[in-house]
Amino acid sequence: MTKSFKSLPSLLQQWWVxxxxxxxxxxxxxxxxxxxxxxxxxxxxxxxxxxxxxWMLLAVVQAWLIKSRWRKHHRTIGYAxxxxxxxxxxxxxxxxxxxxxxxxxxxxxxxxLAIKFLYIDITALLLFCVFLWxxxxxxxxxxxxxxxxxxxxxxxxxxxAALERTYIYGTPSLVPNFDVALYASVITLIVLMAxxxxxxxxxxxxxxxxxxxxxxxxxxxxxxDIIAQTKWFNSFAIFYANL
Length: 243
Known about the structure:
- This protein is an all-alpha fold.
- The protein contains ten helices and no strands.
- Helix 2 packs antiparallel against helix 3 (71-101), helix 3 (71-101) packs antiparallel against helix 5 (112-140) and helix 8 (178-202) runs antiparallel to helix 9 (208-228).
- It is globular and about 55 Å long.
């Protein structure tokens, strides 16, 4: 007996439009603190910022190529983009180290907020790698539906940092600092992923990536404060900063 699938609304099938919205939001969010001040920023932070925004732009291009049925070009760019992914992840790990050392962090003790960001960002980078690896595996198995959702997740993960800045610069009266912005961003992504999960269930196209990413953000919301205050994670933060 075959499953009966409802047809997704045409707007929901325009993946490149949604990826473009993520790209624009990220670019605008990072304009005040990154793009407009890029000449004063350290090289490895520039590399990470450019690679992250390029990854989101790449998602737009790749989704558009699939929509246009240019699968050969999509596949070629996909393999080439693995270099970009490596740069994004490695530079991201270095940026985390810089964050911990900021303002003489080790001399005065690493601030709790920096430890929170270490926890959520290092898990996000690792999850990015897992989703990307699984996306490549799905593509090789010609499970393009799963591949598409996994790649969507790799574009959504970096959105957390962009949303923080959107709240900081866009609603300063409601979100006065990065501590509040972190939780506002995570809650926003929980809502977004919950909507995607419900839509998939509604149209009987449910696959596990969106549910997994939803579970991740819920876990971050529930555990960030707890983990950041543990001795073992503070010791890990000091170890990581000294690498």
